[in-house]
Amino acid sequence: MLLAGAAVIAFFSGGYFDEARAWAGAGCWACVVVGIAAGARLPRGRPALIALGGLALLAAWTLLSILWAPLAGNAYHAGQIAMLYVGAVLAAAVLLHGRSLRIVEPALACGALIVIGYGLSERLLPGLLQFARSVSAEGRLEQPLTYWNAMGELAALGFVLCVRIAGDITRAAWLRTTAAAAIAPLGIGLYITFSRGALFSCAAGLLTLVMVAPRREQLWATLRSVASGALAALSAATFKGVTALTGSVSTREREGAIVLALLVIITVLAGLAQHVLSRREGEGKLPMPARTPLIAAAVILAGLALAIVVGAHESSGASQSLSGGATRLTSLQSNRYDYWSVALRAFAAEPVHGVGAGGWSVDWLRWRSVNEFAQDAHSLELQTLAELGLVGLALLLTFLGGVALAARDALRATPAAAGAVAALVTYIAHSPLDWDWQMPAVTLIAMILAGAVLATGGEAVISPQSSSAIRGASRRKIQTANAHSAT
Hints:
Elements: H1 5-10, H2 18-37, H3 46-64, H4 72-95, H5 101-124, H6 148-167, H7 173-192, H8 196-212, H9 216-237, H10 240-243, H11 249-277, H12 292-311, H13 336-349, H14 360-367, H15 380-413, H16 418-430, H17 440-462, H18 464-486
């Protein structure tokens, strides 16, 4: 139930509204109770305590801000979201440890594929399926989450997880082939959202994956996946009926049938390439420069900083509507800089405790320079700073810092943690650019992965002998797979 939760809530507007969040929170906390009742242990180790303590205190601080927030209802709903995530992390940490870590990546990747496939179905079969549309989407892929950038981030998370599975030599051959084939529809889904932030976060996740899983077979799988994803996106690029939902029904049906046929061919070819080439390509450890994690982090941060600095000089759209379609990928035109400006102004007004959870929307109406309705600052970190002040930001960074320490321990313990860590980087790289936090269908994936990493890292710290055994088992699986490939 826990692993399927993100995919299920995706079909309820991504969990953006309070009723769906309440049911999701009840399910997560029920998993915690069941796990503890069944004898599962709470996560151990200092990183787990730091991360869980930081997140729990962030949730408590969010709820406490009801006392000074301009809209108590908004603050309560923000606290509800935070409590949902506390339950998700704790449930994953209690239930998904040891060998259970192996099922996390395929389950979450499958969920992402189902959601993206559902969104694509209307475009490929327009004569049979018609979904609701919003004018603001301008034809971009938005259903079922109802927000295109969130769909893009979901596709990016699924993309990175599938690439990891395809490059993991300890996995069954059929699973690696299936994961490689799934890259094609995920690639089209990522492209049709025309989300620059999602593309950036996907690139950050793939870079991290090669760094934390430095093996030749992982590098080859990554290169093949990027090629098949790009080929799938290019196959749809010229058909506006698919990418932008324009044209008559008959035109869209014809173009949808063409793209569907091309997608099937590319999907099959991607699976065959994985099955055949993975047996012929070189395997073994990939030489990496010293301080590889620091280099990767510097590259990701530099890319993010460059996008923000360059984009800050572009027009905000105050005098013209923002464009849709592929032109969004070549333009840094955005209203985000207006959102962020209001967030910083709100922080300056109340730097310690912030204006209260959900209070940014009130300040937006007061100080906005763009005649646009908005509820969120489109940045987890800046919205936290504005609404919960330095205290809230410190608690958020405490949570992320604890997860980072646990990720380090988990990677030292077992290569099986590489996919979870890379997907977490994919999420974190996108968090300064959009309101993923308010979209549980996306953030629940990150929270479940964080909980699994906390459990794995905690086991490594508490029982170094068992972690050595895990590494030995992983090496034996690799050796066995190499021997099988050789024969």
